[in-house]
Specification:
The complex is a heterotrimer of chains A (376), B (312) and C (511).
Chain A (H helix, E strand, L loop, with lengths): L7 E5 L5 H26 L3 H10 L5 H26 L7 H18 L6 H30 L3 H21 L41 H18 L1 H11 L1 H7 L5 H26 L10 H11 L4 H25 L5 H21 E5 L13
Antiparallel strand pairs in A: 1-2
Helix pairs in contact in A: 1-2, 1-13, 2-12, 3-7, 3-10, 3-11, 3-12, 4-5, 4-6, 4-10, 4-11, 5-6, 5-10, 7-8, 7-12, 8-9, 8-10, 11-12, 11-13, 12-13
Chain B lengths: L3 H30 L7 H19 L2 H25 L4 H20 L13 E2 L9 H6 E2 L1 H19 L1 H11 L1 H6 L4 H28 L10 H11 L4 H23 L6 H21 L15 E2 L4 E2 L1
Antiparallel strand pairs in B: 1-2, 3-4
Chain C lengths: L5 E10 L2 E11 L4 E5 L6 H9 L6 E6 L2 E2 L5 H7 L1 E4 L11 H7 L7 H14 L15 H14 L4 E5 L7 H16 L3 E6 L2 H7 L2 E6 L2 E7 L5 H9 L16 E8 L14 E6 L3 E5 L6 H9 L9 E3 L2 E2 L5 H6 L2 E4 L14 H5 L12 E2 L2 E2 L1 H14 L16 H13 L5 E5 L7 H16 L3 E5 L3 H7 L2 E6 L2 E2 L3 E2 L5 H8 L15
Parallel strand pairs in C: 3-8, 3-9, 6-7, 7-8, 13-20, 13-21, 16-19, 19-20
Antiparallel strand pairs in C: 1-2, 1-4, 4-5, 9-10, 11-12, 11-14, 14-15, 17-18, 21-22, 21-23
The chains are: A mainly alpha (376), B mainly alpha (312), C alpha/beta (511).
């Protein structure tokens, strides 16, 4: 019957095993590290140097840690939004496009806000612009699914490419910096809309680094997401909708609500992330800006098992891998897109390891004839 | 001024642009007919493209490159199959992981050889027929690969709709639980379908790079993998409709270049975005029609557990 | 002595948490029509799957023609000559009838040949087949006919029929019986799974009775009365149902001219339903499942909407009010499917309590949009203790509860809302005896307290015990309601076949 003769048999568990749940991300991580070592060896580089470049050096200085946190914050926020969507069984895969629209939304505000507006109003306005931009972009797949039953996986993905073109047009056309020597980028944002750095706010530990309030916003988002998903009534209804359509119908959960809210939330979150990038470290909108959160946020969300605090940790880890890959590029000449390889493998390992959580592995049973009759 | 020459040239470029979409789409169609949605097409196409580029650069043989791309696609989809069919992982995130993996792999491979364009191969000229106005260049003055693709397409159509093998495939896609009860080797069928799909994606990417663009760039597939997936939906999971859809999409993709020669004053980004917008439009139209018009494989996207005889 | 065609020796099969078959032994001879009798959950289906080869027994032996068989799968049993007509159809919905039949033919069979063979078999047995229609467009009865023809095409030596008459119209039942008798006369062995004792008396030669996964009796049907079969099947005597007086109040729920608004081919179209339930009254809906009960409940609880006036609560038109609105009016619903509808297995019991709260007047589990976890936990614990639910506490997941305990929890949850109207479908299906009795008692208590109750069940025994009046549903239509002391087996049989207008013979008691 099953021609793939597996010597082992998988029996689903009735009770999920908690220690397996804690162990599997660690195992997945170790497997990924081994893969990286293999890649270094193929390249002819010293595995030790490679691992140090990838893992250790990003964290070896205050500036390094600041960079990791800076990269992790928007990633974390996007991944939190995606976790809300995934747990509601809404596959919003197009976060990349929503991040870009968040950047565009932020730029819209930044480029048109008078200089006289003080920064304690200007910065929130810019971030709000980003949130609205991202939410508008994710409302397209929401409307399409709600009214026409279009699968949001595909529609949100295709919109990513439309978003890239939109940004390219804006930065080479109507918003192009007249003093920018024809580069496809906007003017630099004014000071009143740029994110204040932490050092600026008085946290002198971070003096000399680029770390800005994005990390504080990310921390707040973790708390907010946790409260929303785990403690609120609406969050509960979304989880029900994500578990079973029939149960959601029984409970009286509105079908359209269970599509719109996850998409608006994840779009808004992605938009916020985009705004933080654009008004923070970038300070302008550039055509070449492809945040790359598209896949990384998905990996972060799954690696964190769709739970807010774990997502924060996994975002930090992935940010570190990305920065480490840049180091690898500089020191060992490996292409930086290697980080995609590592992330893909990490996601595969965690998904594969999840098997152990849900199933028990047993030796396959012998055919009937050989079983001794046992007295009961 | 629009002459028949220009229309013919447009049509020809549409058909050629359609080829990677068609091949990748055919592969995904077979996979989805068995109930497995493989979102790794984009990454697989990239990996196939990079591999083909490396092989052609070093061996000067287009067909070796295409074969290499196919093999890489086969490898990636085998990993996908093992994860989703034997380890029971969820199809969508696993597909995304394969795409990420393929993207990284392709970037790595692409750096192995110097970035120099590879030589083009000339088209096949069917005598007399290729002189016909409009359809002549479009149908009878095409790269050899196009005719290979056509053959593959017809074979797949025949297999799915006219053969016992295809009937089993459709049965497995409709209800793996029932098929299992009736004694069909559901997992084996799904394995073959998935690996075939991935091989086609690798082949498509290989052709796109080594037979069409003739140069490697990172991320050169630029969403065509997702378009291929959308194409399957657009075609209602029927191979012959897939050809029409691919040509339609190919036309729009090709149009962005032709529009410049026709001096139409539209920003180039709009034209680049047009295929994706059109795909969304088509998806909307298709999804809003009554279900019975579509051949939706009922078990699409769901994991089958043979021991429990259950779909999740 | 004729050698048995099929022999089972001490066959057992276990699933996680339940023993489906325990050391079952039986023999079937060629030309014999043997009934396999038992209640739901007695192990009939699992046993048949073991014989058919789609399930591998954990212990025991299966002998065919005296030779022991080692398990390799259903293809093997089909090759040996075992055919099965399933209760739940094994048809591929998006394929045509011909394609479905073709799939069960040996490889290499041409489509035209199959077409001819199918036509000849269906003509021989008086069945009309639409060979080029897609299965998803066929009615339930038509689908079963496809199953039967498909099975007969392989010229089996043993055919297993799994509850085949549930969805057939009366004339077709007689035709089916004729077919089966014809098969038996030609030397085919028949295993007929059913719990319809009248049918078994009409058709079968022998009967093997299963209860709780074990064989509790093997009889010659012609020598056994129906009531003896019933006693063997249920393990207890049928109780007497005296006439009772009960105080009832005003009409609480009234349904008038309820018709299905939309209906896909696989669903049952409701036709002109009219009934009322008064406060304190329990109305029972009898009939095999698939007669429209599920659709009726969906229109009553608000999952499906219809014309405003079709459903009225206390005189108020609620036909187009949704689930939450109806809960606010005091409607509580216990659905047929415990898992994935009535409760979510991966959520905790506390979270499952919240599932049907929204809109109810007792919903005080929110403040400022957040869940009040302490209050929820307290109420969950209260339900658990009141209904004696064996579980690992309010935080344990619903998946860890047995069927009976989960049902008790769900019943406790709904009754905890002190509803005015309780809708409950199949309250004790798959539930152990002790929990079943407890649940029935609780529902009766609720009615005594003034609630109106609508209960549907396949177990007429249960309905007779709990209900004041009984209606029967058949193929989307509903019979008139009769007080329970006026329900007897003749009336029940006629009404289950949809013959609401045929006058009765003499009024025999249920026994």
């Amino acid at each position: 019957m099953n021609t793939f003769a597996f010597p082992l048999r998988l029996i689903p568990r009735v009770h999920r095993s908690t220690w397996t749940m804690r162990l599997t991300p660690v195992v997945a991580l170790m497997m990924t590290v081994m893969l990286s070592v293999l890649l270094f060896l193929i390249q002819g580089a010293s595995p030790l140097k490679g691992v140090i470049a990838l893992v250790v050096s990003p964290l070896s200085s205050v500036g390094g840690i600041a960079e990791v946190l800076l990269k992790a914050s928007p990633l974390c926020i996007t991944a939190l939004g995606m976790a809300v969507a995934f747990r509601s069984n809404v596959n919003n895969i197009g976060a990349e496009g929503q991040v870009i629209l968040g950047g565009i939304g932020a730029a819209t505000v930044a480029l048109h806000l008078p200089v006289a507006v003080p920064s304690y109003l200007g910065v929130p306005a810019v971030l709000l612009g980003g949130i609205i931009g991202g939410a508008l972009w994710s409302s397209v797949p929401a409307g399409l699914r709600s009214k026409f039953s279009v699968n949001e996986t595909l529609s949100s993905l295709l919109l990513v490419y439309v978003a890239i073109q939109l940004m390219s047009w804006l930065t080479s056309g109507p918003w192009r910096d007249p003093q920018g020597l024809n580069f496809p980028e906007t003017e630099l944002f004014n000071g009143n809309v740029t994110l204040p750095s932490l050092a600026h706010l008085g946290l002198t530990f971070w003096e000399g680094t680029r770390l800005n309030i994005a990390v504080l916003i990310a921390a707040a988002s973790v708390a907010a997401t946790s409260l929303f998903i785990d403690r609120s009534r609406i969050g509960y209804e979304l989880i029900v909708a994500g578990q079973s359509q029939r149960a959601a119908s029984y409970a009286g959960v509105s079908k359209s609500m269970s599509v719109w809210i996850p998409l608006l939330c994840s779009g808004g979150a992605a938009g916020l992330a985009g705004a933080l990038e654009v008004s923070g470290s970038l300070g302008q909108l550039q055509a070449g800006w492809t945040p790359g959160y598209g896949f990384t946020a998905i990996v972060a969300a799954y690696l964190g098992r769709l739970k807010p605090v774990s997502i924060a940790i996994s975002s930090g880890l992935l940010a570190q891998i990305e920065i480490g890959s840049l180091n690898l590029q500089m020191e060992l000449g490996l292409p930086s897109a290697l980080s995609y390889l590592i992330q893909g493998f990490l996601l595969l390992s965690i998904l594969g390891m999840d098997l152990m959580v849900r199933y028990d592995v047993q030796r396959k049973m012998l055919p009937i004839r050989n079983v001794e009759k046992q007295g009961v | 001024m629009v002459t028949s020459d220009i229309v013919g040239a447009l049509l020809q470029s549409a058909v050629v642009a359609a080829l990677p979409l068609l091949i990748a789409g055919l592969g995904e169609l077979v996979s989805e007919r068995a109930g497995v949605v493989n979102l790794g097409v984009e990454g697989t196409m990239l990996a196939g493209a990079a591999t083909a580029f490396v092989v052609v650069s070093t061996s000067d043989s287009l067909w070796m490159g295409l074969l290499a791309g196919l093999v890489v696609g086969m490898l990636l989809s085998t990993i996908f199959a093992i994860c989703t069919l034997t380890l029971y992982t969820s199809q969508i995130p696993t597909g995304m992981a394969i795409t990420a993996f393929g993207m990284g792999l392709s970037a790595y491979l692409g750096k192995l050889v110097p970035a120099q364009p590879i030589p083009a191969t000339s088209n096949v000229h069917v005598p007399l027929l290729s002189e016909l106005p409009v359809i002549g260049p479009a149908l009878f003055n095409l790269p050899l690969f196009a005719y290979v693709a056509l053959v593959i397409c017809i074979v797949i159509w025949w297999l799915i709709h006219r053969s016992r093998v295809g009937l089993s495939l459709r049965a497995v896609g409709d209800s793996p639980v029932i098929a299992h009860q009736l004694g069909f080797p559901v997992t084996k069928v799904r394995y073959f379908a998935v690996i075939f799909g991935g091989s086609m994606a690798g082949l498509a990417g290989a052709y796109y790079c080594a037979g069409y663009v003739l140069l490697w760039q990172e991320n050169m597939i630029a969403g065509r993998g997702w378009m291929a997936i959308a194409l399957v939906l657009f075609a209602g999971w029927r191979p012959l409709r897939l050809v029409l859809g691919a040509v339609f999409f190919g036309a729009i993709t090709a149009a962005q270049f032709q529009a410049q020669t026709l001096a139409i004053a539209i920003p180039s980004q709009f034209l680049t975005a047009l295929p994706y917008i059109a795909t969304i439009g088509v998806l909307t139209y298709i999804s809003s029609r009554k279900q019975s018009v579509l051949d939706v494989p009922k078990s699409l996207g769901r994991t089958f557990h043979p021991l429990l005889s259950k779909l999740s | 002595m004729v050698k048995p065609l099929l022999e089972l020796i001490e066959v057992s099969k276990r699933y996680p948490g339940v023993v489906a078959n325990e050391r079952v032994s039986l023999k079937v001879h060629p030309g014999e029509i043997r009934a396999i009798v038992g209640e739901n959950g007695a192990g009939k289906s699992t046993l048949m799957k073991a014989i058919y080869g789609s399930v591998r027994p954990d212990e025991g032996q299966i002998l065919w023609d005296g030779q022991e068989i080692s398990f390799t799968g259903p293809q093997q049993m089909r090759r040996l000559g075992v055919g099965m007509v399933f209760q739940h159809f094994s048809l591929f919905e998006s394929l045509t009838v011909l394609e479905n039949i073709l799939l069960s033919m040996p490889k290499g069979t041409a489509a035209q040949q199959t077409r001819n063979m199918a036509s000849s078999v269906s003509n021989k047995y008086g069945i009309e087949l639409k060979l080029d229609a897609r299965v998803e467009a066929l009615s339930v009865g038509e689908r079963q006919q496809v199953e039967i023809v498909r099975c007969l095409l392989s010229e089996p030596r043993l055919v297993i029929f799994d509850e085949p008459t549930a969805v057939l119209p009366v004339p077709a039942i007689e035709a089916l019986f004729e077919t089966i008798r014809l098969l038996a006369r030609n030397g085919c062995a028949i295993l007929y799974i059913s719990h319809k004792l009248a049918e078994i008396k009409t058709l079968c030669h022998y009967a093997t009775i299963l209860r709780g996964g074990r064989v509790v009796g093997e009889v010659d049907v012609s020598l056994t009365r129906e009531v003896e079969l019933a006693v063997l099947m249920t393990g207890r005597d049928l109780p007497l149902y005296p006439r009772t007086e009960k105080k009832v109040g005003d009409v609480v729920l009234s349904v008038s001219a309820l018709n299905s608004v939309t209906c896909s081919p696989a669903e049952v179209q409701l036709v002109d339903l009219n009934f009322e339930i008064k406060a304190g009254e329990v109305l029972g809906v009898a009939g095999v499942s698939g007669s429209g009960q599920r659709e009726l409940f969906e229109y009553l609880c608000g999952e499906r909407l219809t014309k405003r006036d079709a459903v009225k609560v206390d005189g108020q038109s609620v036909g187009n009010t949704g689930v939450k609105g109806r809960r606010a009016l005091g409607i509580a619903y216990i659905p047929e499917e415990r898992v994935d509808q009535g409760a979510l297995p991966d959520l905790s019991l506390g979270q499952n309590l919240l599932l049907s709260q929204c809109g109810a007047s007792t919903d005080n589990f929110s403040s400022l949009g957040f869940v009040r976890t302490r209050r929820l936990a307290a109420e969950t614990k209260a339900v658990i203790s009141r209904f004696n639910v064996k579980c690992g506490g309010a935080e344990s997941t619903a998946a860890t509860l047995s069927g009976g305990n989960l049902q008790k929890f769900i019943v406790g949850r709904e009754l905890g809302k002190a509803p005015k109207i309780l809708l409950v479908a199949q309250p004790t299906w798959g539930v152990d005896i002790a929990s079943s009795m407890f649940i029935r008692h609780q529902i009766e208590e609720l009615a005594r307290g003034g609630a109106a109750v609508l209960v549907s069940s396949e177990d007429i025994d249960e309905l007779m015990q709990m209900c004041d009046r009984i209606v029967v549903m058949s193929k989307g239509k509903m019979s008139p309601a009769v007080p329970r002391h006026q329900m007897n087996s003749e009336r029940l049989g006629l009404w289950m076949a949809g013959l609401f207008d045929v006058p009765l013979g003499k009024m025999a008691s249920f026994q």
